[in-house]
Design brief:
It holds the Pfam family DUF4429. This is DUF4429 domain-containing protein. InterPro entries: DUF4429. By secondary structure, the protein is of the alpha+beta class. The protein has one domain: Pleckstrin-homology domain (PH domain)/Phosphotyrosine-binding domain (PTB) (PH-domain like, Roll), CATH 2.30.29.30. It is built from 3 helices and 8 strands; from the N terminus they run E-E-E-H-E-E-E-H-E-H-E. The strands form 2 sheets. A 4-stranded antiparallel sheet has the order 1-2-3-4, covered by helices on one side. The chain has a 4-stranded mixed sheet with strand order 7-6-5-8. Strand 2 and strand 3 form a beta hairpin. It starts with 9 loop residues before the first strand and ends with a strand.
């Protein structure tokens, strides 16, 4: 069939999490302390992503990739006063250390290719 090529899932390890990008969804599995701050396992359908926010990792601060849904855009604040409203406590956020810059760039490019029409912006 034309146009029905099957894509293999792409897996990228982040800080305290593993992200698997499928043709129709993103799965985020957290391990260790990553499960304390957020859900152990999160599934985000690509069709529900309305914005991708990012922060490049540096030696001084971790970077992140935030796959925002419509509900996130309404409720989440960059530096929210409560854990529920802060980006860091959101299950749709993946953190990267400065040592994981290559993986961060790889995931950012893969997400952009998967949802090319979704706007992107720096966090904040």
């Amino acid at each position: 069939m034309v146009g029905s090529e099957k894509c293999d899932p792409r897996t990228i390890k982040a800080h305290q999490a593993t992200v698997t990008l499928h043709a129709d969804r993103v799965e985020i599995s957290r391990r260790g302390l990553g499960r304390v701050a957020s859900d152990k396992h999160t599934v985000i359908p690509l069709a529900e992503i309305v914005q991708v926010q990012w922060k490049d990792p540096t030696v001084l601060v971790n970077g992140c990739l935030f796959l925002a849904t419509a509900e996130d855009v309404k409720t989440v604040k960059p530096l929210g006063a409560s854990k529920e409203k802060a980006i860091g406590g959101n299950p749709h956020v993946v953190l990267f250390t400065s040592f994981q810059r290559k993986r961060y760039a790889e995931l950012r490019a893969a997400v952009k290719a998967a949802v090319p029409d979704v706007p992107t912006a720096p966090v904040g």
